């Protein structure tokens, strides 16, 4: 048996209407999983599920709403018979110098990026643990960031949120491991990928006057990644690995997929 395959597994990916989440849904589906596309973007999310086909389901999910999480996980279990993988990928980026960042911007960033991941972890554990609605263990993958490992100019709120995701993941890994739940929890730390969010970051550096123009911003970010920019699939492949039984002895790690950004 190929332990890298995901046949028989059911995966829910938050924020998978586009960007890294969409690439992850495609990669997990290509690996054999049934996938639940979960997002606030109903039109794009439903299209994404249609593109994948019969083994995909779209559910509306605002990660900050606990009732949405309960309904999304229940829908996965009802449609596909269980839940084995939850990828907490949905997130936003706030670009602002800390001295100018409003409390509302800071709180909103933490609400989506941290409270949203907390709720995903909580309801994944409840469903996956022995006696839960699925009850067969599983893998939780939380998408943090390179900005969750070191400070970044103009990204104070975002760094705060992604740093919290890093340790929330480790705390969840400890809890699930010590309590014998059969659930692994890991975080992934992507470098800059030119999704809508990634392009916005480059533009925001210019808008904030931190870079003179977009070409300079792009060169600066490119220079920070030792082997060039990555693709959404590069992150998705890492999620696929951590979701699979090939990673059965891996929990509580932080996997940097960043073209060498963190090493430099
Ligand atoms: N792109 C990068 O360079 C990069 C780097 C490091 C980490 N990340 C992280 O990867 C994840 C995906 O980023 P991306 O680049 O694909 O961004 P993106 O903006 O292209 O996509 C984010 C998705 O999350 C969804 N979303 C936002 N708020 C939501 C909410 N409240 N409930 C449910 N869904 C919500 C959006 O609708 C969208 O589909 C994020 O957590 C991001 O912080 C991205």
What this model shows, in words?
This protein has 264 residues and is of the alpha/beta class. The chain has one domain (10-196, 233-257): 3-Layer(aba) Sandwich (Rossmann fold). Helix content is 46%, strand content 14%. The protein contains eight helices and seven strands. The chain has helices spanning 19-30, 42-52, 66-80, 103-128, 156-178, 196-207, 214-224, 232-243, and strands spanning 10-14, 34-39, 56-60, 85-88, 138-143, 183-190, 254-257. It has a seven-stranded parallel sheet with strand order 3-2-1-4-5-6-7, sandwiched between helices. Helix 4 (103-128) runs parallel beside helix 5. The longest helix is centred in the middle third of the chain and has 26 residues, at 103-128. The radius of gyration is 18 Å and the shape is globular. Nicotinamide-adenine-dinucleotide binds at residues 14-15, 17-21, 39-41, 61-64, 89-93, 112, 116, 143, 145, 190, 192-193, 195-198.
